[in-house]
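User: I'm putting together a teaching handout on how multi-component assemblies are represented. Below are the sequence lines for each component of a complex, exactly as they appear in our records. Could you produce the 3D structure of the whole assembly as structure tokens, so the students can see both representations side by side? Please keep the chain order the same as the input.
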Amino acid sequence: MGAQVHGTQHFDAKKRAELKFSDAAMETVKDIISRYPEKHIKSALLPVLHVAQAEFGGWLSPETMDYVASVLKIKPIEVFEVASFYTMYNLKPVGKCTFEVCQTSSCWLNGAEDIVKYIEKKLNIKVGETTKDGMFTLKTAECLGSCGTAPMLQCGASYHENLTYDKVDKLIEKYKSENKLRSYTDLDYNNTL
Amino acid sequence: MKVTIDGIEIDVPKGTTILQAARMIGPEVAPPAMCYYTKLKTSGGYCRTCIVKVTQGSTANPNPMPKPVASCRTEVMDGMVVQNFTSPEILEARKGVVEFLLINHPLDCPVCDQAGECKLQDLGYENGSVKTRYEFKRREYDMIDIGDKIKLHMTRCILCYRCVKVCEQITDGRVHGAIHRGDAAEISTYIDKAINNDFSGNVIDVCPVGALTDKTFRFKSRVWFTKPVDAHRKCDKCCGKTRVWLKGDEVLRVTARKDQWDEVHEFICNDCRYDHKKTSDWVIEGPSHISRNSVISQNHYEHLNELKLQALKQQKALGFMNIDKRP
Amino acid sequence: MGKKLLIHNDKVPGINTLEVYRAHGGYASVEKALKTMTPDQVTDEVKKSGLRGRGGAGFPTGLKWSFLAKPEGVERYLVCNADESEPGTFKDRYLMEKIPHALIEGMITSSYALGAKSSYIYIRGEYFYVARIVENAIKEAYAAGWLGKNILGSNFSHDCYVQVGGGAYICGEETALLESLEGKRGNPRIKPPFPAVAGLWGCPTVVNNVETIAAVVPIVNGGGEEYAKIGIGKSTGTKLISASGHINKPGVYEIELGITVEDFIYSEEYCGGIRNGKKMKAVVAGGSSVPILPTELILKTAKGEPRLMTYESLSDGGFQTGTMLGSGGFIVMDEDTSIVKNLFTFARFYHHESCGQCSPCREGTGWMEKILKKFLNGTASESDVELLWDIQSKIEGKTICPLGEAAAWPVAAAIRHFKHEFLEIAKSKKFVDISHYDRLNKKVVA
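Assistant: Of course. Below is the structure of the complete assembly, with chains in the same order as your input.
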């Protein structure tokens, strides 16, 4: 409560000056912007923030938000207001893979709590924490629309459903061996595991 | 358009809201408003203290509205019938709203600069309970400076959004806004930016609680120990018409003039507000009118003079010696 | 077997591609509408069909369409609400994932009826992979000439775009969705004006749920009257139900409105009964916000008539003894379930999802969660039940948007029907988590 993002976060002008979308990301951003009438470019904010988060380390630093504001020609506070409203934008650094375990009704009825406890034990972290090696972050999430295949967790774009302890073990192994940043925008999502 | 509020009928132009119509009738029917502000477009609707019951939608469609409506954002229809203080249901609902506004409020009135002119205090006094039913830890935030003249004490904020709308509508660029969501929502600037432009000080005047206070006045005096006078000066940035709060010959603070609904007549600039703190800076017009019901009036000399005159009259009638000529 | 109109082809290999979809009769409604019907005729068919909004509120779709303001020279928009977030609901995801073209076809036909040159599909951010699937389908549709300029050589041109959200349940509320689509915080707007007059970017806008838009396809193809023959009374057509919880066969089912609840829960065609041979305790029939009902009231109305899967039958008896069809998020709980704990997950959800604009919801949802936590800690007292009741009553109907009601109703219903459970915990000062399912170590058939 009282996240105090203001006052405690530093704004690094040098870091900000170095930020730039890669050509591929810029293409995506341009495609997103083209979906809206020119004078309503701000509409592109949510999807562009997803691109920025994937592009710049899995979270939205003050510098990233400032950069996005400049790309969309809006004020930084407008970006900050939006980024802090929605749950999918990380305002703090996270691990390469964020496990978001759904905990609402149907998932709870099917043992989501046990899954959370199991992951906590297995990764030796609590909900909201990141493993020391920066590989995994564990979060709980509210209903992700996977009630019929509960319990489940989301990692990047992938939905991992009908979880069992065995499946969780396999997931951790898989992501560890891949060792790459997992984002919502990933094209290579894989829901089969 | 004819509208009846608590049994009193009034004719109002099209486009008038229920709240405005009620205010035209007078305080006896006007609902309290914590977030609505006449001079700020799209304000209102958030706090829910001004909810009323519409028992008849209009002459054309006499059905009642299914739920209580926010009177500040609902336009009247011809033949509308509204209940405010006459509806026990509304009074109970409003009591609930006040409780919601207070459960996370620190109730630190004894150390709050706003005390005495706080709308939440008034609201709690009129509609609140004596005892709280909330037993959990209240929300807390650190105090921060937004600029060198304004203190933001988020813990006291009721998220009325007036300050956001002030910056959006009367300053040349908003740098603060609402961040996060739900009961974690807070008013903040982007990183450490200061709200700094000629009209930013108006956020203090519109804030209904002690969340945004004037740092140049902080802890100088209780408001009821100061004497508000209407004053003006020639100003090239704003109207220059202000209310100057005096203690002796000292100017403790300068604010905009406010009407009976506690809304400013005209917004003023930061020059007038912060940089003219000598009585010689101002042409003093006379005592500001302060409502007798206000805490400020407890020590207000317009009111005190009146009492004094009354006392003198009585004493004279009773053959007392003039109070000033006593040995 | 009941009639299926929306997902009858869901098991056909490659149905997500335009080629296979077309081979199975896809895009016929666009052909029919553009070549043989005026926009008003399409709207008339939708009116005749009796189709009601499938997102939860159940407002007649044809009526909603007819409210759309049509001032000269002002753009109009169709926006598809694919922000499916109501706990217990996952039907839109299934439809978009399996048969994305069904939605796109519906978007084109509906847009033709509404005179919308552009439309947006707002998909919740967590469904990013689903958005990819829909985007690919849109690309295919453009390439085949179903989208773009002068579709089928007609005067009708249409562009359809996808936007992903950022993670916020409140964006399922239509005005919050529009705010979000405009790149802002998902704060519901104060109404009026309604979107039909001033919606996206201030232009007249219709916002419809995914399933509603997809249902326009069979309505145009078969005619509104034909569609209205399915179902009972004002509950016409078919409905996708997301079934979850302690049932043998969770999943998305298309039902003809009017089958009995008992049939839906126990027949092999649908849920297949309660798992592990347990007895049923309670059902949340239409997504988390609708009142929970105990077994005896969900199977039969208070009058003793069999409860049917229709808008009217489920709400028979009002909130005293009834519930709502809502979004069709059907959560079944067995005899071992703690209603209090389940309610806690709902309360936590609404607290988490409150946008924070208006005070009753912002402050009240968190308060209710904290009190329910006391029950789980074993620190609650009997007076907390009364307090909970009072708080929910002070939220309900006092807020800007229906999230207030959505948060209040489950609390009210749980206390109404299961007060003894709250009191037992309060008395014994002990919460016993009896819901234990040792299925996590077992392989589960997907």
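A couple of points students might notice: The mean pLDDT of chain B is 91. The two ends of chain B are 64 Å apart (CA to CA).
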